[in-house]
Amino acid sequence: MRKSGVVVLFVFCFIVTVQCSLRKDADYWTKLATKELDEALRVKWNVGRAKNVILFIGDGMGPNTVTATRIYKGGESHKLSYEMFPHVGLLKTYSADKMVPDSSSTATALLCGVKVNQYTVGVDSTVKHKDCDASLNPNAHLDSLAAWALRAGKSTGFVTTMRVTHATPGPMYAHSAARIWECDRDLPTGAERCKDIARQLVEDWPGRDLNVIMGGGRQGLMTNATVTPSDPTSPWSCSRQDGRNLIEEYKKDKKSRRLKYSVVSNNRELREFNVNDTDYLLGIFSNEHLKYESERNKGPDGMPSISDMVEAALHVLKRNSNGFFLMVEGGNIDMAHHRGRAKVAINESSAMDDAVKLALGMTDEEDTLIVVTSDHAHSLQINGYPERGMNIFGTTGPSRADGLNYTILSYGTGGPGSFQYSVETNQNGSRVVRQDPSTVDTDSFKYEQIAAIPLEENIHGGSDVTVYARGPFAHLFHNVHEQNYVFHVISYAAKMGPYSAGRSHAVDNNTNVCL
Prior knowledge:
Elements: H1 2-22, H2 26-41, E1 52-58, H3 63-74, E2 87-92, H4 103-112, H5 132-135, H6 145-151, E3 155-163, H7 197-203, E4 212-216, H8 218-221, H9 246-256, E5 261-264, H10 267-272, E6 280-284, H11 306-317, E7 324-330, H12 332-338, H13 342-362, E8 368-373, E9 377-378, E10 380-382, E11 395-396, E12 406-407, E13 409-414, E14 421-426, E15 429-434, E16 451-454, E17 460-461, E18 465-470, E19 480-482, H14 485-494
Parallel strand pairs: 1-7, 1-8, 2-19, 3-4, 3-7, 4-6, 5-6, 13-16
Antiparallel strand pairs: 2-18, 8-18, 9-17, 10-13, 11-12, 14-15
């Protein structure tokens, strides 16, 4: 009895402590605001040249995803690593032809500085979706930040948890009328003259000169990719059929040019490659996308985390005394949102926050511009009115409409699993009944949140996304911007392309064409 009394007393004290920590008095909030004000008054503009640039893109990481990640990691008052950056703005994400965009058009805006049509990669808006002939026009091809960085003598590359030929990394090196043309199998009849995105990565410039390429997508790079129980191929993704092995062609190209390179395929090889003898690093860790952080094999033969890849990438890129440009995509945030699995998406967002924190520790704010943003949002909602300190994946309520609790998180649109209603019939007639989420495990990584509109899958949201920046010229993010503005701020800060002479514009006033 004495032992149980101590336990009860401990629990009581813990509850009181938590409640006190959540319900601060006026003096607490005044001091907190004063501290923030002092921090703001101490912010000074860094107008030095950005020797290095890292652009983090949380795919599908809209404002509500960021808020939920913050609560998940440390509570409502917590701050993620990039939420402590001194400069913040908003980006308008619409594409050239759609109010709500896809990832290839938004990635092209971020990486190439121009808004383009939905589902196109690295080509301007004169190219319609799947118009192969139009995409072959050199005048429609857009230079990327990678191209400008290479011309400026910098090292460059990308890290992604997606296929390396997917929508977000694609504009770094490719020009395509269709994001789905990742390998030869998916090129339609009549489009044979268009080179698939995988071949552009390995054969064409700037793809073949990228210093770091890391992600998934082996089945699109080589015919008859090796299949294991833990790494199957996916029928939903392009599988190479032309007999070529582009990974071997990558090796042959580097050997023929006497370049120092390493090719890795799992955690062990990524940890053990010789950084001091590597100027070019290719890491292909899966046939399809990389596994979710909550599912990946962390052992020697497994797949790396986004932080593991960022750390290796920075070790390689920092070998160049002229600096570097690195794009990092947390793509599984978007993949999980599409499947209505909010906990998985937020856990992936948390993993990207860890990668940002790692990058901060490996770079210097004085000469490195770090930008964190998203390509687009999803329809994730945070519903009222849960108590402070509650599990963000839990339930609250009840609803006055039907007397049932509801999940704190829900979606505007969702797949089949999100339609959590049934028809109940009794002697008084029929009525639609909502599933009671209190009877299921809403904290599971497998749980799919309820959605207002059932579709084949969750689809993107059209809200603005936040951009956070630290380092040289980070203050140029200061209000509501067009998404393609990011490209121009980065180029100006790093003095690349037409901005290399320090000019404040990159448009020829006579032709109104981006130089």
